[in-house]
Write a structure and sequence with these properties.
By secondary structure, the chain is of the alpha/beta class. It contains 23 helices and 30 strands. Helix 2 (77-95) packs across helix 19, helix 7 (220-233) runs parallel beside helix 13 and helix 15 packs antiparallel against helix 20 (496-507). The chain binds iron/sulfur cluster. Iron/sulfur cluster binds next to helix 1. One of its GO terms (biological process) is respiratory electron transport chain.
C-alpha cells in the first residue's frame, strides 16, 4: 500500500476521468478529487466515485474456478491454466487453429488489448478474434475512415466544444452516460452557442437543448439527408471548401436532393419547420460540430447514417477547421485504444489493416514471426458469437459479458453453452463467467498499471495504487502463462511498461502511432494525444529496444490534439463525401409487432452491469430494468406506472415494470440493457448487421407489448 495519493483514472467509461486514490482506514483506497486532469477537472459521476467498492467486495473472485461434475469449484492456478491450455491445444489439434476463438473487451488497457491480439495470432494462430467494442463504435469508425481516411473518436479535444457555435448531438445522452462531460454543453450554451439534440426520447440531455428533434428510431439517416437537402436548397453550402478540401460532392448532393423535407418529415416524424430551424442554427455560426453516439451508430445502416452526418459537416465546411467538425463520443473505457492495438478482427497494432502486406511485415517483424504465417481477418463480434459450438469449439473471453450485452442474447447464451470449452477472465462471476468451464480471477484497475486512450484520442496512464489480493493474477500474467503452456516461452511479458514499449514499436508509422509516447511522458504530461511519432532519429527499431520518445537531446513530438486542420488522412488529403440514401430498419413495425423498441443506458449502471450491479450504492440507485412508454401507449395497454409489462420481439420476451413518461414518442418504448434475467433487454434486440461495420441493430427492432397480470 502506498501512503500518498496516487493519480489515476476511472475504470469505467471513455471519458477516463482523472481521480486520486488515497489510502482508506480499512486498508483499501478511496477516491479523492484530482482537479489537474483537464477532462473532468475533479468531477466524477457516481460510478467513478464508488469504483473502489468492488476492490474489496465479498463477491469478488479470488480463486480460479473449474467446472467439476457440473459445478464451478475452487482450484489452483496450475490446474485452471492447464485445463485452458489443454482445451485450446485440443481444439487446435482436432479442428484447426480457427476452432479456437478469443473475445476481448473495450475496457481492457492498451497493453492487454495488444497482448490479446498477439496471443490470438501468434500463439493460437487463429483469425477468430474480436471484441465487444464492435458493438460500441464500429459504425462511426467505418464512416470516419471512409470520409477522413482515419478514425479517432473526437478529432479535437473536448475543450473545443464550449467554444464552437453550435453542436448537433445525435443519439447521445451524456447526462446519463458520462455526466462530467455535460459541462462542455452547458458551457457551450453559456457562451452563446446552441445545442441541438437528436433523440427519440426527451432525455435529461435533451432537456438542455435549444432544439430537440425526436425522430422515429432508425431514421437518423433520413434526418441528416433532409438537413443536407435544406442546406443546398437554402444555398448554405461552403462551395470553396467543397472545391478545395473534398471529393465526391456531386453524388452526395444528388442523393440528398432526393430527400425532400416533406418526405423526410413522413419518414422521421420531425416537422419541416423544425428541420429548417436546425439548419438555421447549425449554419449561422462560423463554427459548428456534429457529435454522434450509439443512437445512429448501433443500426444495421449505422455506417451510412454516420456518413450522412459527416456529409452535412463537409457540405457546410465544418470538418478539419478550428472548433468545428465531426466526432464520435465513444462509450467504453478503452473503446478507442481497444480498437487500435489488435483485438479487432481486421486490425493490427497501430490501427493497421490486417490485409495490408506492409502492415503485416512491420508487425510480424516486431513479433519475430513470419508475416505469411499471420492469419487474415476473422469474424466480427456477433458473427463470432453466433459460430460458437459450430466450427468454433473453444473460447477464451476477457473483459466482456455477452450473455447480457450481446444482441439476441438468449441465442448467444445458448451458443456459449454449446462450446466444448469456455474460459473466462473476470473479477466477478458475471453471467457469462457462470457458464464457463474455467474462470480466472484477475486484478482490477487500481491494482495494476496500464494505459487507456480516451474518447479524445488522449492516451492516459492508470497507476497501480494497491496490492492485489492473494489468489488473483493480471490478464497479462494469464496470457504469459498460457503462451508458455502452449509452447511460446517469450514475447508475453507481464510488466505493462514492457508491453507498452513493444506496442510503441508495433504502432510506429501506423495511423495510430504511439511510438513517441512513453510512460514517463504520460505521467508528466497528463496524457498525450495520438498520433505521436517518435522523432526520426530516435524512433524505436521494430526488432528491439525502445526509442527515446522523451529522452533529452531529441525534439519530442507534442502529440496531436487536433486532426485534419491542414489535410485529411486520405491519399489526396481531401475528405470524401460518401453518397448515402435512406433505407428502412431491418425490422419495421407491422400488425404483429406494432411498436419500436430502442435500448440504452442509465446513469448508475455501466454496460452489462457486471461490475456496477455489484456496487451497493449503484444498485440502490438503479436496481432493475424498466419499460419506458408514452401515456397513450400505456393507456392502450391498460398499464399504470410500475405495472409489469412484457415486451415481445421475434427473438424473445422480456418483462419489466412500466415507467410512463410523455418524454418518449408514442410509437416507441425504451429499455436499459444492464440487467440479465427476465428483464434482459438484449433478449429482444435484432442482430441484423451493418454490411460495412458489422454493427448489430441494437437501437431499433419491432416489438409488441403485453400487460402481465400478477397472480
Ligand atoms: Fe468514470 Fe465515466 Fe463517470 Fe467519469 S463519467 S467518473 S470516467 S464512469
Amino acid at each position: 500500500m502506498q501512503i500518498s495519493a496516487t493519480p489515476t483514472h476511472c475504470p469505467y467509461c471513455a471519458l477516463q476521468c482523472g481521480m486520486n486514490l488515497t489510502p482508506a482506514p480499512d486498508g483499501g483506497v478511496r477516491v479523492a478529487e484530482r482537479a489537474d486532469f483537464p477532462v473532468n477537472r475533479g468531477a466524477l459521476c457516481g460510478k467513478g466515485r464508488t469504483a473502489p467498492a468492488l476492490l474489496s467486495s465479498r463477491v469478488r473472485l479470488t480463486s480460479p474456478l473449474v467446472r467439476s461434475q457440473g459445478r464451478l469449484t475452487p482450484a489452483s492456478w496450475e490446474e485452471a491454466l492447464d485445463r485452458i491450455a489443454g482445451a485450446l491445444a485440443r481444439a487446435r489439434g482436432e479442428h484447426g487453429a480457427d476452432a479456437c476463438a478469443v473475445f476481448g473487451g473495450g475496457g481492457l488497457t492498451n497493453e492487454k488489448a495488444y497482448a490479446l491480439g498477439k496471443f490470438a495470432r501468434v500463439v493460437l494462430g487463429t483469425s477468430q478474434i474480436d471484441y465487444n467494442g464492435r458493438f460500441c463504435m464500429s459504425s462511426a469508425a467505418a464512416a470516419g475512415n471512409a470520409a477522413f481516411g482515419l478514425d479517432r473518436g473526437l478529432p479535437f479535444p473536448l475543450e473545443d466544444i464550449p467554444r464552437t457555435g453550435c453542436v448537433i448531438l445525435v443519439g447521445s445522452n451524456p447526462a446519463e452516460t458520462m455526466p462530467p462531460a455535460l459541462r462542455y454543453f452547458t458551457e457551450l450554451r453559456d457562451n452563446g452557442g446552441t445545442l441541438i439534440v437528436v433523440d427519440p426520447r426527451r432525455t435529461r440531455t435533451a432537456e438542455l437543448a435549444d432544439l430537440h428533434l425526436a425522430p422515429r428510431p432508425g431514421t437518423d439517416l433520413a434526418l441528416a439527408l433532409g438537413l443536407l437537402h435544406l442546406v443546398v436548397a437554402e444555398a448554405r453550402t461552403d462551395e470553396a471548401y467543397i472545391r478545395e478540401r473534398t471529393t465526391g460532392w456531386q453524388e452526395a448532393r444528388a442523393a440528398a436532393m432526393a430527400h425532400w423535407p416533406e418526405y423526410v418529415e413522413r419518414i422521421t416524424g420531425v416537422p419541416v419547420p423544425r428541420l429548417r430551424e436546425a439548419v438555421r442554427l447549425f449554419c449561422a455560426p462560423e463554427s459548428a460540430m456534429v457529435l454522434t453516439a450509439r443512437g445512429p451508430e448501433q443500426q444495421a445502416k449505422g455506417t451510412d447514417t454516420v456518413g450522412a452526418w459527416i456529409n452535412l459537416c463537409l457540405a457546410t465546411g465544418r470538418a478539419g477547421r478550428p472548433l468545428s467538425g465531426y466526432g464520435c463520443l465513444t462509450g467504453q473505457g478503452n473503446g478507442q485504444g481497444g480498437r487500435e492495438h489488435g483485438q479487432k478482427a481486421d486490425q493490427l497494432p497501430g490501427y493497421r489493416k490486417l490485409t495490408d502486406p506492409a502492415a503485416r511485415r512491420h508487425v510480424a517483424e516486431v513479433w519475430g514471426v513470419d508475416p505469411d504465417g499471420l492469419p487474415g481477418p476473422g469474424r466480427s463480434a456477433y458473427e463470432l458469437l453466433d459460430a460458437l459450438g459450430s466450427d468454433i469449439r473453444t473460447l477464451l473471453l476477457m473483459g466482456s459479458n455477452p450473455v447480457v450485452s450481446a444482441p439476441r442474447a438468449a441465442h448467444v447464451e445458448e451458443r456459449l453453452r454449446s462450446l466444448d470449452f469456455l474460459a473466462v477472465c473476470d473479477v466477478v462471476l458475471s453471467e457469462t463467467a457462470a457458464l464457463a468451464d474455467v474462470v480466472l480471477p484477475v486484478t482490477q484497475w487500481a491494482e495494476e498499471t496500464g494505459t487507456t486512450t480516451n474518447l479524445e484520442g488522449r492516451v492516459v496512464l492508470r497507476r497501480r495504487a494497491l496490492t492485489p489480493p492473494d489468489g488473483v493474477r493480471s490478464d497479462l500474467e494469464v496470457l504469459h502463462d498460457l503462451a508458455a503452456r502452449l509452447g511460446v516461452e517469450k514475447g508475453f511479458p507481464t510488466d505493462p511498461e514492457e508491453v507498452f514499449e513493444e506496442l510503441r514499436r508495433a504502432s510506429a508509422g501506423g495511423p495510430a502511432d504511439y511510438s513517441g509516447i512513453t510512460y514517463r511522458r504520460l505521467a508528466e504530461e497528463n496524457g498525450v494525444f495520438w498520433p505521436c511519432p517518435a522523432p526520426a532519429d530516435s524512433a524505436p527499431a521494430p526488432e528491439s529496444g525502445s526509442g527515446s520518445g522523451s529522452e533529452p537531446g531529441f525534439e519530442v513530438h507534442p502529440g496531436t490534439p487536433r486532426l485534419f486542420l491542414d489535410r485529411f488522412a486520405t491519399e489526396d488529403g481531401r475528405a470524401r463525401f460518401v453518397p448515402v440514401t435512406h433505407r428502412p430498419s431491418a425490422e419495421e413495425p407491422d400488425e404483429e409487432y406494432p411498436v419500436l423498441l430502442t435500448t440504452g443506458r442509465v446513469v448508475a449502471q455501466y454496460q452489462s452491469g457486471a461490475q456496477t450491479r455489484r456496487v451497493e450504492e449503484l444498485n440502490a440507485a438503479a436496481p432493475g430494468p424498466f419499460v419506458e412508454l408514452h401515456p397513450r401507449l400505456a393507456a392502450r395497454l391498460g398499464a399504470a406506472e410500475g405495472d409489469p409489462v412484457a415486451v415481445v420481439s421475434r427473438r424473445g420476451r422480456a418483462v419489466a415494470p412500466a415507467r410512463i413518461t410523455a418524454g418518449i414518442r408514442p410509437d416507441t418504448v425504451f429499455m436499459p440493457f444492464h440487467w440479465p434475467g427476465e428483464g434482459r433487454a438484449n433478449t429482444l434486440t435484432n442482430p441484423a448487421l451493418d454490411p460495412t461495420s458489422r454493427m448489430p441493430e441494437f437501437k431499433v427492432c419491432a416489438v409488441r407489448l403485453e400487460r402481465v397480470r400478477e397472480e
